[in-house]
Amino acid sequence: MIVVAIIGILAAVATYMTKADACTQTGMGCISLNNEITATSQLAGLITQGNNGSLTYDDGDCSVTATIVAGGSVTCTFAANGAIASAAQCQSGAGLN
Hints:
alpha+beta
């Protein structure tokens, strides 16, 4: 169950990463991207041109935060949101350990 949740989380975040990368590097699509983030209840974050940004997806069991650096690199951190899963299980479900 946790593995399925993590795959869903990664897929959701990956959907936005191309747009976030374009926004931070060129400014293109920032307004529509941030509108999409705001309209999706499980997402939180703000992406702007020339700045680092972050995007968090939270499904209630696990969450992933992708930090986007204006130069184009992305790092992800995982956290558990209660007794259902541990941070280690969230990372394992994502194939990170």
